[in-house]
Amino acid sequence: MPKKKPSPPRAAAKASSQTDSDQLDFGDLTLGIVAAVVMPVLVAILLGIVGMPVGGSGGLNADQAQQFRDVRGYTPPMTIKEAQIILQRVQFWVDDRAAEYIRRSRSTDAAQEKNYWQGIAIGVLGEAADDLSRVLDATALDLEIKTLVRDATQEWISKIDTLRFELDQEDPFRQIR
Hints:
Blueprint: H1 26-50, H2 62-72, H3 80-107, H4 111-141, H5 147-170
């Protein structure tokens, strides 16, 4: 048998080596530790130097807490214009809304319905009386508010008291209560 000619050399298969980016080495580990620990600590130190609080505050001292309460509870003094606006709103509540609810309660004979409308009217009168008491308190503290506003406030309070008394007299469940 004739001898075969030797075949040309084959290209050697490349060694299967991973690229550098797939391997975990000491440099990657160092970079991870720096990113996870050193950078936040460095940022906190820099913010502390600048003056920004890091990690919350230690709370307010007694003087700061009292100042905060005083500012939150402060209401500026009432002006004449504000008192007049409140009086106009009270006039609407009493002459329009409460009068309509009282009319509805008087127009029905059903005790439950009468009691319902009277309850709503009493609620509206209560809101009006609360606003009038605010105006009276402001007029007692501020002497600049005209006596005209004070007198009008007193008149509305007496009218509200009269309407409340009438509603109490007309209460269908008065004898039960």
